[in-house]
Amino acid sequence: MTHSETLAKAGLTEAELSGGTLAVHSPIDGAEVARLKQTDPFDMPAIIATSQEAFQIWRRVPAPRRGELVRLLGEELRAAKDELGALVTLETGKITAEGLGEVQEMIDICDFAVGLSRQLYGLTIASERPGHRMTETWHPIGPVGVISAFNFPVAVWSWNTALALVCGDPVIWKPSEKTPLTALACKKIFEKAAARFGDDAPEGLLQLVIGGAEVGEALVASKGVPVISATGSTRMGGVVGPKVAARWGRPILELGGNNAMIVAPSADLDMAVRAIVFSAVGTAGQRCTTLRRLIVHKSIKAELVEKLIKTYATLPIGDPRSKGTLIGPLIDQGALDAMQTSLEVAKAEGGTVHGGGPVTEAVPGGAYVAPALVEMPGQTDIVKKETFAPILYVLEYVGLDDAIEIQNEVPQGLASCIFTLNVREAETFLSSVGSDCGIANVNIGPSGAEIGGAFGGEKETGGGRESGSDAWKGYMRRQTSTVNYSAELPLAQGIKFDV
Ligand code: NAD
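^ thats the input. predicted complex w/ nicotinamide-adenine-dinucleotide below
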């Protein structure tokens, strides 16, 4: 299918795709596929005011009814899955299965949020005072600003939006300037669901703003947007987080990772190899949860590295739309240059590089690379950095405590895992003295999170949690209420204050 056909099938019109200043390129072949009109930062106050007005209406709609809108959104996504998945592939370069997988994740979070809409539970708390009842209730908080990254252009929006909507909050979405087309398509899908839902979905419940950091900054700076959910690099989070906090807003930060796998002597190596390859080269190493560090027991390192080198040599690299391709392009030439620079630094720090380098015969115009395995003498500076490309550093360990120390000795804290058949090792890894990450798995790679669990990480990954578990609480305000149904007025802590 040509790019124009993919765009048309996703419902995007020529008028929407032209006449603006934001050039959008497909990483598949570098072709310019659109020139979008950008949002003028001067228009942001009016956009935020519209969202505030929508909030006045939406917070009054009962939560299970709000869930009905999300149910319809899930239905529309099911109907549009193939077309939206193909657009994700066109705009990010993900292989077809991963483009479709991203849309499936959107469907899954909608299902989760529909159930949640009847379970926004509060608490009843025992009061120390006779004739008193204490409760905790969750209320809608207001507009949520969603700033998303290029690599999960639509799933991250849906994680936030499905929850925000059932929680009673409107959403203003600023997608990555590298992937605005999938956002336009999602807005249309949402509008179909809203039209079916009826009149109690207010105008401006979901608004889309297009542009770069300056458009995002207007959201970040506004007191009219109490929650900012920002997904992207640690550099971006370092700017956004303090700005939101300084105006007493609530940041939910989902930032970079530097994810590791410990492979213990008892590990099922064949299973580990499959998990390593998917986690390290899937999405061409451009997942926040991509496996970047392999911490292998000295006794099995040579065997495992040999198996990996053999497997890496067979991986099909090329057009992400073609059947059989496992590694598509990087997002752009800048990402390829950054990968090459990191490999040079790794060599200078004592690394032995297997693979890597541009794959020029793939598709002309695209930034295709061979994934790299790099045996390192230790955890040097470059290993502690996230390079958003398929580079897997291999380190060795002798004792499990050392392995855990190496795993935790980086600034990021997103995803981690151990491959072992030894229950003592597995439980130690998951214990309070084990992995310090938000995600810690046993006999599963670090990437490919499932809806249901809270997603996010510690340290420079930002501390935010999204998607499952009680992440919904981040989109609501908590109210503690005490009701006195007695004829006395006892004070807490036994204080006597007779007047
Ligand atoms: P990026 O930081 O360059 O951009 C992310 C978004 O932030 C974009 O929409 C961008 O326009 C916006 N932005 C940048 N500066 C801003 C500012 N000062 N104010 C407001 N908005 C601003 O990231 P990217 O290259 O698109 O994505 C890759 C990064 O995202 C990687 O580090 C990856 O690990 C991370 N990521 C993390 C998660 C997670 O859940 N933890 C998920 C996906 C991606």
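The two ends are 82 Å apart (CA to CA).
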